[in-house]
Write a structure and sequence with these properties.
The complex is a heterodimer of chains A (about 170) and B (about 725). In chain A, strands 1, 2, 3, 4, 5, 6, 7, 8 and 9 form a 9-stranded antiparallel beta sheet that branches. Chain A contains 3 helices and 9 strands; from the N terminus they run αβββββββββαα. Chain A is of the alpha+beta class and about 170 residues long. By secondary structure, chain B is mainly alpha-helical. Chain B has 31 helices and 2 strands. The radius of gyration of chain B is 32 Å and the shape is globular. The two termini of chain B are about 60 Å apart. At the A-B interface, α1, β1, β2, α2 and α3 of A face α1, α2, α5, α8 and α9 of B.
Chain lengths: ~170, ~725
């Protein structure tokens, strides 16, 4: 059960920090992003829409990434399968733990300056623009090191156990 | 286990503790933690003040240990739990003079703006913060709750000042939150203001929550302890209980082994002869569909049954079933079904030549298959896939039409060899239920058969059989045994690899170089096959063709492949064997050392196959639907155009699962190698193990590197 609880704890600092604020057609758009600062690779982006102090939960929202800076020789690690989500994806309520946020996971293909277009379709169609800086991608080991450490940890524990048993035998 | 110590309230308390944890980490509390400090504070209070005491009040130590497998507790955890050093470290950590300061330090440190902002900005640090809170809180509450069988180190009354000191720290910190007139954490200043709360108001509310309910949680147990101590006069130092040697596990009865054939209903179905025929028929029809589509369908692998079903679904399902159950795909083999039909025409009167009674022929075919797979991109050419299946059917009918028994399965079939080796790590085995019953048997029907049922076609004599090598799970022996003494029993995976002795028709592993090389070829091929799909290797192989031209490029590619699958394992194992023999001064010749240890690499090789094939299965699982739709439409059984745009995705958990599988395989292989060295090298165990362990470690490192590379999406339209 503890393992299961640890497994469902996927949200962490759900939605991340506010990394941009914009106002368009009377709607205040707050952009959340993780990791902070953004890196090439998978990015969890979300927007909170607010009008006259109340949340807007009836819009349809989409994200588009447009590269502004020159191509980078620093492509991101997309994980096994080269299957990063696209650079243009719909953002939905309910993707994040925080149900007030329209969010989606985007694949930032490479480092550099990007423009994120947040397409909001409510009473009318409007687009809020945010400039994002994506730093160099993280090595996959930075994500998966706890799992990789399991082997040396297992070997160490086994060696320790053998030592305990042999000491006991000597006694 | 002293049942009086565990009334229902203990269980209720423990479950409430788990529920509190769940509320803290998987409820809207967590979702709004980066928006409202007050929410975040509630989450932290649950993690530090509610969940830990409830969990500890459940006295979870012995119930948890009793719930674990007996061998894990006695052989795995037992040495640690009874080790004086571990006990000393554990005792030190829960000593009030250590646990209290640790808890307070964790509270103060994580509330410093830099640390708090770090946790808010990073999921990893946020988890570390929560782990820190929970961990130090468990240590802190330990001396207060004293979960049985823990022994108190301080008199009970000392817990009162202990709790009060922590309450003072809590009051100072919460007072600071409440009265400080600037926003401490900039993240909350930028966050949306829900309920119209300003950031500073939210901060004051968080302080109040920390102050009032927090203080109550510390003061309440302090009051209870004081009242109890005063009423019972128990202010004196507690008597130290005499430490008694207690066994961690007190199960008096040995749990009976699981037998799949004894499972109601399911067991009856599996053992029935028609069940195997049914499985074979289904697989045969699927194979026919794949062949037809491979020859006559579109020659795009992602749109053809021959490009999808065998390479994505069948391979993936096979390794998953081998991992969680056993060799059930040999049971459902369509080639055996065809050869059984063929035997109605061909009499099969000859015996397989003695010179060929080994795995060398199958090893050769296996290496050829792997080479052809890489060289001609078999997965990408439906026509070739169909042709191979037809060839396979023809070979099965021809070989078993001429030679008696299951010659094709035992000596020829490369797929069968893959299943045999992989099933060495499977948890189920066709085995005798009660050996004493076999001791009285004179007819040996499991081997020879009888009027009703045939015996084992692979000549495996059940009482002398060990492990799954060469067993096709046909269950002929099960049906033939007049005493109903053969079942599909649970077995510790890999048990047979440590057995040093003769097995029926397999012999001693240390005397079977063909088997050893089969395992090695499969192990190294697992890594080579996966590496052949990752971007850096694909680029390197492409570079060979560009540098040397097509012909010489292909030659170098072939040499490269043979180097990895044939030469590298031979050099590696003979090198390791020679070093191990030299450092340990062992008198044994090199051959048995190499053969015995080479077999131990089966788990790591299998784990790489599973990691690789499950990746394709999971990411390409849905790719079968449009292809089946198209196939049905070709026969006029469906009208609409297939949805080729069906989403193919990689779940977030998949890379982690792949690494875990590889971890398990590597640790298992290391453990087997260590055991083998222990048995055969005496006091030179470590030095004898070292080269072999190094080889397993190197394979593991290569495996991790491969898993961290982008891999081609074969069998789908997303290549």
């Amino acid at each position: 059960m503890l393992v299961w609880i640890a497994g469902v704890c996927v949200a962490g600092a759900d939605g991340g920090r506010v990394i941009g604020v914009s106002e368009i057609d009377g709607i205040r758009v707050l952009l959340f992003g993780q990791p902070d600062p953004l890196r090439a690779g998978l990015a969890d982006l979300g927007v909170y829409l607010e009008k006259n102090g109340t949340s807007c939960l009836d819009a349809s929202v989409g994200f588009r990434l447009i590269k502004l800076s020159a191509p980078s020789p620093d492509p991101s690690w997309a994980g096994p399968g080269c299957l990063a989500p696209g650079v243009s994806v719909p953002a939905i309520l309910g993707h994040a733990g925080n149900k007030l946020v329209y969010s989606a996971v985007l694949g930032i293909p490479e480092s550099g300056i990007w423009e994120l277009a947040v397409d909001i379709n409510r009473d009318r169609f409007s687009t809020a623009l945010f400039e994002l800086k994506a730093t160099a991608p993280a090595h996959p080991l930075a994500t998966w090191w706890p799992l990789v450490l399991m082997v040396p940890a297992g070997v160490t524990l086994f060696a320790w156990r053998s030592r305990i048993l042999s000491r006991r035998q000597r006694q | 286990m002293a049942p009086a110590k565990f009334p229902a309230m203990r269980l209720v308390s423990f479950l409430c503790g788990l529920a509190a944890l769940l509320v803290a980490v998987a409820s809207p509390l967590d979702a709004f933690a980066s928006w409202l400090l007050s929410m975040h504070m509630v989450q932290h209070l649950i993690l530090t003040m509610v969940a830990p005491p409830l969990l500890l009040l459940g006295y979870p130590l012995l119930p948890v240990l009793s719930g674990l497998p007996r061998s894990l507790v006695s052989r795995g955890l037992g040495p640690f739990l009874t080790d004086p050093l571990v006990k000393k470290i554990g005792g030190l950590l829960v000593h009030p003079l250590v646990a209290g300061p640790l808890f307070m330090l964790s509270n103060v440190l994580w509330h410093i703006p830099y640390c708090y902002e770090l946790a808010l900005g990073s999921e990893g640090w946020h988890r570390a913060e929560h782990a820190c809170f929970l961990g130090t809180a468990i240590l802190f509450w330990w001396p207060v709750v004293q979960p049985w069988p823990a022994r108190p180190v301080w008199p009970r009354w000392a817990m009162v000042p202990y709790l009060l000191v922590v309450d003072v720290q809590n009051t100072i910190l919460s007072g600071f939150f409440t009265f400080y007139d600037r926003v401490l954490y900039p993240t909350y200043e930028a966050a949306p203001r829900l309920m119209g709360w300003s950031a500073i108001y939210d901060q004051a509310a968080a302080g109040a929550i920390m102050w009032v309910p927090g203080s109550i949680v510390y003061l309440l147990p302090a009051a209870v302890i004081t009242v109890k101590a005063l009423t019972s006069g128990g202010l004196a130092r507690p008597h130290r209980q005499v430490a008694t040697q207690k066994k961690l596990v007190s199960h008096s009865q040995v749990s009976s082994s699981f037998d799949l054939l004894k499972v109601p209903f399911l067991g009856l179905i599996i053992r029935a002869g028609w069940f195997r025929r049914l499985l074979q028929c289904v697989m045969f029809l699927l194979a026919m569909g794949v062949v037809a589509d491979g020859f006559f369908g579109p020659q795009v692998s992602g749109m053809n049954l021959a490009g999808v079903l065998p390479w994505t679904h069948w391979r993936g399902c096979t390794v998953v079933v081998l991992l969680v159950a056993g060799n059930f795909f040999c049971m459902a083999c369509p080639f055996t079904f065809a050869r059984d039909l063929g035997r109605r025409i061909f009499p099969a009167t000859r015996r397989w030549p003695t010179a060929l009674r080994s795995k060398w022929g199958a090893v050769g075919l296996l290496v050829c298959f792997f080479w052809a797979y890489e060289f001609w991109d078999l997965w990408a050419t439906p026509w070739w896939t169909a042709a191979i299946i037809v060839f396979y059917f023809a070979a099965a009918i021809l070989v078993d039409g001429m030679f008696r028994g299951a010659t094709f399965c035992k000596y020829v079939c490369p797929i069968g060899q893959f299943h045999f080796v992989s099933s060495l790590a499977s948890p189920l085995e066709v085995r005798v239920r009660e050996p004493s019953v076999c001791a009285e048997c004179r007819t040996h029907d499991c081997l020879n058969g009888n009027d009703r049922d045939r015996g084992c076609e692979l000549s495996l004599f059940q009482p002398a059989k060990s492990g799954n090598m060469d067993c096709t799970f046909c269950l002929d022996c099960v049906r033939a045994c007049p005493a109903d003494n053969v079942g599909i029993l649970a077995t510790p995976p890999g048990r047979d690899l440590l057995y040093e002795g003769k097995r029926s028709m397999v012999g001693d592993f240390s005397n079977r170089p063909d088997l050893a090389f089969l395992v090695l070829a499969l192990t190294f091929a697992a890594f080579a096959n996966a590496a052949g799909m990752v971007a850096p290797m694909v680029a390197q192989i492409g570079g060979l063709r560009e540098s040397f031209g097509v012909f010489w490029g292909e030659i170098s590619e072939t040499l490269y492949f043979l180097g990895v699958v044939v030469a590298a394992p031979l050099v590696a194992v003979f090198g390791c064997g020679a070093i191990a023999r030299w450092v340990s001064g062992h008198k044994e010749t090199l051959r048995p050392i190499v053969c015995r240890n080479a077999m131990m690499f089966a788990p790591i090789g299998f784990s790489m196959w599973v990691a690789h094939f499950t990746y394709h299965l999971v990411t390409g699982f849905t790719s079968a639907w449009p292809v089946l739709h198209r196939f049905a439409a070709d026969f006029g059984m469906a009208s609409a155009t297939p949805n080729w745009g069906i989403e193919t995705s990689m779940p977030e958990w998949l890379p982690g699962m792949q690494i875990l599988l590889l971890n398990a395989g590597c640790l298992f292989t290391l453990w087997l190698l260590w055991n083998s060295a222990q048995r055969n090298a005496g006091r030179w165990t470590f030095w004898s193990f070292l080269p072999w362990g190094g080889l397993a470690g190197a394979l593991y490192a290569i495996g991790v590197w491969i898993l961290f590379q982008p891999m081609e999406m074969r069998g789908t339209l997303m290549q």
